[in-house]
Each structure stands twice: as C-alpha cells, then as structure tokens.
Amino acid sequence: xxxxxxxxxxxxxxxxxxxxxxxxxxxxxxxxxxxxxxxxxxxxxxxxxxxxxxxxxxxxxxxxxxxxxxxxxxxxxxxxxxxxxxxxxxxxxxxxxxxxxxxxxxxxxxxxxxxxxxxxxxxxxxxxxxxxxxxxxxxxxxxxxxxxxxxxxxxxxxxxxxxxxxxxxxxxxxxxxxxxxxxxxxxxxxxxxxxxxxxxxxxxxxxxxxxxxxxxxxxxxxxxxxxxxxxxxxxxxxxxxxxxxxxxxxxxxxxxxxxxxxxxxxxxxxxxxxxxxxxxxxxxxxxxxxxxxxxxxxxxxxxxxxxxxxxxxxxxxxxxxxxxxxxxxxxxxxxxxxxxxxxxxx
Length: 346
Known about the structure:
By secondary structure, the chain is an alpha+beta fold. The chain has nine helices and eleven strands. It has a domain at 18-175 and 275-340: 2-Layer Sandwich (BirA Bifunctional Protein, domain 2). A hairpin with a 5-residue loop joins strand 3 (69-72) and strand 4 (78-82).
C-alpha cells in the first residue's frame, strides 16, 4: 500500500473482538473525558461541523490542505466549510462564554480532511477532544505548558490503568513520566534522520515524549512538522524563545512506531501572530474576522489543543489500524491487505 506509515505487523491478532471493541471504545471515551474535564477545569460545550468560508475561523493545518466547502441555498448561496479542526473557534467561544483565567471548554471535534494520506494511522475523518483554557498573560511560559502536558499525560495513564482493570488482557505499557525534548535537540541528536525517524527513535527510548517547538525552522532550515501561523505560538519576534507548543507522542508496540496522541500549545498573542504571519508570508490573513479580533485585543489569552479520540482508543486497545476503531471508507487494496493480516476494519 501507498502511504507515509503503511505498517502492518507480520503477525497480528486483535486482543478484543469487534463487539468487545465497540463496548470498550464507549467506556474508554466516557472515562477519559470526565477525567480530562476535571483535571483541566473544562466545561463541555457543543461545537460546529460547519463554519463560514473567508472568516479565518477554520484551521489551516499546514496551510496547504483544502477544506471541504459548498454553497448552501438556505444561506442565500453563502459558502461554508467543513471544519478541519477547531483551534481558532474555541478561542472565540472562550470569549463569548466569558471564561475567566483557569477556566476552559472542551468539545467533540468531528472533521473531514480530504487531502489526508490514508494509512494505518490516518483516515479522512478526524475525531478529537478539542479543549481550550483561558490563561493569564504571565502564564505564557514553557513551564505552564509543561504543567498542562503532565496533567493530560496523567489522565491518559489513569485511563490505561482503569482499562486494564476492565480488560486484564490490555497490559499497561506507558512510563510513569513523560519526557520533554525540543525538536532542535532531536535534530542535533539524529541529524541524518528525517523528523519521523527521529520520533521513532526517541519514543522507543522513552516510551512517551512531548516534542517542543513544532512549526519553527530548525538547523537545516526546515520545521520538524508544519503548523499554521495563527494559533500555536511556535516562535517569538526576538527569536529567543524555545517554542510554546508541541506534540505528545508514544511508542506504539503493535506497529513499532511513534504514535501522536495530541497536539497542543499556548496560543499566539498579537505580537507573535504578526511575526508568524510574516514568516509564513500570510500577512493577508490579518484582515480576516478572527485575526482582526485577536489583533484588536478582543480575545482572551489561551492555551489549548486536540487529543485524538480514535488515536487514543487505537493505542490503549492495542489495535493495528485506525479502521478498527472508526467506521470509514478505505481503498480496496487497503481493505484486502488488512484482511490478509487479520485486521478487521469496521
């Protein structure tokens, strides 16, 4: 199969059958989101599947992915887009709900990404727990970001332990603590390897890591991975900051590969937004609705991120393919290859 990480174990047998899997998915999701909301002080809110085109609210991801859009007769022909994530919508929601510092929101984010490459880890459909929390300006620090990472990783470990009590065959494998490392340190340690190969190496070494500074150019002039310039703060105007965002990755033993569970960060303020728009050659976005509000100081300072729902289930239930967690549409060749490897897609 084609794809960036089309990995199929030579020998695979799902620990849980399909019926057990469906039950475990619901139990896992219920347990995790209750604990996440308690840990981070988040209130549950509803979220859109559609946003208006041309407002700057939709997530641009790496800046090249096409959102799925169409014109709606009921809206007098106005163009709307299916969300790719809710990174910017959540910040607007925090302002609308008048969240105080220390308070936040979470929601079920359901997105369609038509340009996604399909493989064991990626589908056209993305489901996340998207969360956002208001912070004070003085909390725009790496230490404050690390505190949130520790909290989220603690909830993931708690869920793993609870799941093992329900299904003893699912043995816990996560380390007691998560390791922090900057993307530039990974590049210095393994300069001959690609970013994905570095992730594989570091997660095999530590089990669970948070890679800091996703989006900024490294020593070779390329970023570890792409990030849109208008939500996470991955650099500062003076260029001295180590980055205020990153990804939680774990080692997935079934696939023997690095496995991203969450992307998160402290959000841009007016100064870093201007700087990052300039670096990305996207200054024109400053005229969009979301960006105008932010530059005018009308939005609270926040931090936030997304935690993959199917991803977390896939990891904790020790599955080989995301199609064992979510019902989806897959190429015929992929379905055939999965069937030969004993992987039953929903």
